[in-house]
């Protein structure tokens, strides 16, 4: 049985969401297309253990669970959250993740709300901000291997598109004056990239080598302080550059 997956247009739509409602709806639909009925996102400013930390949440977390999860001390001991705070790779969890650290009862409680197993990751934004995204379900995940890797990659791709939209919709609007100056060629390459063109296709359209197209994309990512071309596109869209 194949792994469910989103189509490219779904990803683009998530990043281009014009308001919070459509952003959340598209995130939920994307997670569902991946085979996960629950998706939870958090835009965090500051460190989790800092009393001044500011957190904004999105997703379709079951209402009853929100009441159960109000105990912040428990949240800070959560092994999934602990893993996200200390490593840069996605985290896959199940019951064993909790029982291993003596939190089997916590898993039993959350499992009643559909949080039996899932995948979570953390991405960084400039300004001491982080974006956490996780998908959860009742059904066991595939054993370690190609299928599970495909699921993890799907979440990483979704998070890359959701990252800038989350910062734009849940935080202050992006000011054009905060965007470093991009050359005309860099904007041309990025504009075609935003339309789903590969580096090779962009090189043919703009009459340059594929290496030069990738060089311009690399410069844009460095200037905008992002880690992928998708984040670069979405940051420029948020600032109204094209």
What is the terminal-to-terminal distance?
41 Å
Write down the secondary-structure element order: HHEEHHHEHHEEHHHHH
Total strand segments? 5
Beta-strand level of the residues, as a percent range? 5-15%
Strand order of the largest sheet: 2-1-5-4-3
Please, what is the average pLDDT? Answer: 83
Assign the structural class, choosing from mainly alpha, mainly beta, alpha/beta, alpha+beta, or little secondary structure.
alpha+beta
Q: Please, how many helices?
A: 12
Largest sheet: 5 strands, antiparallel
Poorly predicted parts: none
The whole-angstrom Rg is 19 Å
Global morphology: elongated
Q: Bin the helical content.
A: 40-55%
Give your account of this protein's structure:
Helices cover 52% and strands 14% of the residues. The chain has twelve helices and five strands. The chain has a five-stranded antiparallel sheet with strand order 2-1-5-4-3, with helices on both faces. A hairpin with an 8-residue loop joins strand 1 (38-45) and strand 2 (54-59). Helix 9 crosses helix 11 and helix 9 (184-194) packs across helix 12. The longest helix has 25 residues, at 146-170. The termini are far apart.
Short account of what is shown:
Helices cover about 50% and strands about 15% of the residues.
List its salient traits:
5 strands, elongated, alpha+beta, five-stranded antiparallel sheet
Helix and strand layout, with pairings?
Blueprint: H1 8-15, H2 20-34, E1 38-45, E2 54-59, H3 63-68, H4 72-77, H5 79-86, E3 91-93, H6 95-99, H7 104-111, E4 117-125, E5 129-137, H8 146-170, H9 184-194, H10 199-206, H11 210-224, H12 229-238
